Amino acid sequence: MKILAFSDLHGARNRAASIVEASAAADLVIGAGDFCNMRKGLNEAMAMLAGIAAPLVLVPGNAESHDELAAAAPDGAVVLHGQGAEVAGLRLFGLGYGVPETPFGEWSCDLSEARAGDMLADCETADILILHSPPKGIADLTSTGQSVGSDAIHAAIARIQPQLAVCGHIHDSWGRRGSIGTSEVVNLGPLPNWFDIDPRER
After folding, report:
1. pLDDT (tens digit, 9 = 90+) per residue, 85-136?
2. How many domains does the chain contain in total?
3. Which CATH number belongs to the domain containing residue 114 in this structure?
4. Burial class of residue 54 in the structure, from the number of CB atoms within 10 Å of its CB (0-12 exposed, 13-18 middle, 19+ buried)
């Protein structure tokens, strides 16, 4: 199954156009948060993605809340935040927001490590984990070399062992990847990223 995934669109029209164009070849499209900027422009960002015909699964970043994204998402899109869903035969689980809390102030939608751990505890199995924040120690370095990922997310990936865990959030680590056990972890960024994933035996 051909999966197209991206993160951190931040309202960029040219990047949205590239994703929509690429999506014609996708069986599933995943958006891993931060579609707008500082809680503004979300409806416009979602309108830019309206040309995606494949099944679309989204998680909120720290730039939009879960409720805001659920209200603005294109018709038929699945929005996950602490929930799982089966889409196109794949078991998916999503967790959005900044984890741990960011220094960005009141506009940022964040979770503590403890709260993120509680929400991830509901996931027992998944083919793909869709996250906004990266796990601690993988694809989570800032420009100063600081590791700012989430311990709770790292622990959940180690426990669940999805085939793939996708994230974004840390712009300086876009395109970086690594592994936790048998799980591939990729910080996506706002370009088309392609994966071939098929459902595991139940």
Report:
1. 999 899 999 999 999 999 999 999 999 999 999 999 999 999 999 999 999 9
2. 1
3. 3.60.21.10
4. middle
